[in-house]
Amino acid sequence: MPRDGAGPDFIEALARGLDVITAFKAGRPVMTLAEVAATTGLARPTARRILLTLAELGYVRAGERGFTLTPRVLDLGVAYVDALGLWDIARPHLERLVERTGESCSVAQLDGSDIVYVARVAVPKIVSLTVQIGTRFPALPTSLGKVQLAALAPDELERILAEPTRSGLTARWRPDREERDAALREVRARGWALTDEQLAPGIRSVAAPLRDGEGRVIAGVNVNCHAAETSVAHLVEHHLPLLLQAAGDISADFASRERLPRVTAPAS
Q1: pTM here?
Q2: Domain membership flag for residue 7
Q3: Is 219 exposed, middle or buried (0-12, 13-18, 19+ CB in 10 A)?
Q4: Where does the HTH iclR-type domain lie (predicted)?
Q5: Are residues 86 and 209 in the same domain?
Q6: What string of pLDDT tens digits covers the 268 residues of the chain?
Q7: At 33, which CATH number?
Q8: Residue ranges making up the domain that contains 87
């Protein structure tokens, strides 16, 4: 069935194929044909053709218990990260920040009303949420989301927050508009954002914006810690200055990379 609002150039088959790929989640890495059809809302014959096509392309593998994704799916996300160049630029700075704070550090970007992690250097600690490249959380209750939402124009902010989250996580902090606007005004005034167990119990973090050569906010970088181990005072007094320095260094390196001339190889 065609989607509501799809224009004349919309390719329904491609959208259905992506729906099948994203149907596989951490809680359901193996799915039968019936489960894929039920999850995506596709007819079984349609789901079957899509699964067999994805298998032929190497993105899905058929087994005794059902279908699973293959590592080739990672190419889709890695292509984005590589094209942006943020991981290569941020990595040494994140590694240095982890060494100096002893905490996990990440870079994430807005995707609708969510954030998606695009770079991360982690330390082994037991926390209530698992985070890796590609992890998606609602933006507003995260420090990484707040520093990016605070940079948006009012109309754009409302449009983005009106989009439904695709993270599957219900955050602890769900403010009304007045409380939300007050929180984002504070972030704009300070230039950084704090989250104290607003996303989930035990999760505390501080984030700073990353900017391109024209000063536009393109991502956020944070230091994440366990609330039982690190106080808000220590997070702000010790970790925040190191984070702000790292954010400035990453932004400067990103701006320098943007200024490099683009070299195009001549056609053979």
Answers
A1: 0.73
A2: no
A3: buried
A4: 11-71
A5: yes
A6: 455 556 777 888 888 998 999 888 877 889 999 999 999 999 999 999 999 999 999 889 998 889 998 888 877 766 555 555 677 888 899 999 999 999 999 999 999 999 999 889 998 876 667 888 888 999 999 999 999 999 999 999 999 999 999 888 889 999 999 999 999 999 999 999 999 999 999 999 999 999 988 999 999 999 999 999 999 999 999 999 999 999 999 999 888 876 655 544 455 4
A7: 1.10.10.10
A8: 77-259
